[in-house]
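Following up on my earlier message about manganese (II) ion. Here are the inputs again, as you asked, copied directly from the submission form:
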Amino acid sequence: MDFKTQLAGAGGLAALAADALLVLVVGDTLPGGLDQPLAELLAAAVKDGDFELKSGKTLYAHRVAGVKAPRVAFVATGDGAVKSVRKAMVTGLGLLKGGGGKQLAVAVAGGGELGAAHGEALAGAVGEALYLYRETKPSAPPASKLHAVSLVCAKTEVAAVAAGLKRGEAIAAGATLARECANRPGNHCTPTYLAAQAKKLGKEYGFKVEVLDRKDCEKLGMGSFLSVAQGSDEPPRFIVARWQGAGKADAPVVLVGKGITFDTGGISIKPAAGMDEMKFDMGGAASVLGTLRAVAQLGAKVNLIGIIPTCENMPGGRAIKPGDVVTSMSGQTIEILNTDAEGRLILCDALTYAERFKPAVVVDIATLTGACVVALGHHRSGLFSADDALAAELLSAGEQALDPAWRLPLDEEYDEELKSNFADVANVGSRDGGAILAAMFLKRFTGKLRWAHLDIAGSAWNSGKAKGATGRPVPLLTHFVLSRAQ
Ligand code: BES
Ligand code: MN
Ligand code: ZN
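Thanks, got it. Here's what our run produced:
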């Protein structure tokens, strides 16, 4: 997709050279400043009861007299917040993407000044609206003909909007990559596939990728990670990707992504209904790859390391059993009371491994608990950190990226539940506060690290008719990493 800014020029929107024109109407009164043919069309549609100035309402018109663009769509945004404008952009793109238009011009009527956030929103909306999974579905409808999108703005807004479009394009490409990985079924997206994907990305975008196999992990003493992998015939991989955008001495940001390519629950097996969705259990890993891509594409002056422990969680003759005790890379022993709490078992060794990079901060990203979905639903990801400043940074990145998170507690009182008579720690406690207990477990493996944990069990994919990966939290993570760049 080709993203540009476009000046309205003397003729206004009506004279704009484009195949399709999308006008986002801010506010609940008819906007001033529209050219006569568009203003008249809008006023008449409102008067006739065919369009309302209410969020989400749409109007499509074809070959309007006096308007150069043959296709015109109006979408009401409600208020002028970037979030509302983005939502209206997605709706408008939905109206226009299937048509014959190749170049789309998008204009905002009745709002305030346009800035980088609007450019970023448009690129993100295009990525969201035009994505379609086709890898294993030959019957999927053909791709949209749209190949150029511009945001109409004033001369004084061009620089900021263009910068926003560039950033948004990189984030959208990262999110699309994450969606592509996560949507692939478990028999396609294996640990081996993820490792190959990481290598390929590294070559393309200029970062180093090292892939450790089972033997390498054994040597490192990753007894917890390997205990999950041992139930499957699919070989595990431990992926380490390094983007060096800043000086060698600059402490890196480390992202650790949960890469369970399929979670059956293991011997503590999950119920059959909806189990297919456990192919999305590598959403954290996918978001790490997507963020690396976005950051590298932008050439950000920051050091970023992505760590992905990846394997399947399967029942089998060699699988771990409830009550088994394993020794983690940190030396702490773990009593596995529930083999379905496997995410924390692979992440704890990855967190220990992360220490060698002397990171500035470490953030792990994981589809970790059903309890987080119960607590927060699907809109906000769960955020955990004992570090107030780091938590504030991540929350703010989420707000700016329109990919929001919500902080949950990590009080030491919760830790009581993870005590075991047979090991240093148990991998589960009671059901209550399950998302917090999972985070408390991880915290035991973070030592002196500045660490935060994102539970994306509710935000990484949609269920139901629109079942599919969302690409979250690539926008949050990219904003976070960029805010730490020089
Ligand atoms: N991958 C799941 C978490 C999950 C479940 C995400 C449902 C999204 C929807 C994780 O490995 C898991 O199974 N967690 C258990 C933990 C429990 C055994 C303490 C859970 O949430 O039920
Ligand atoms: Mn599980
Ligand atoms: Zn899982």
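One observation from looking it over: The CA atoms of residues 249 and 303 lie 10 Å apart. Hope that helps, and feel free to reply on this thread.
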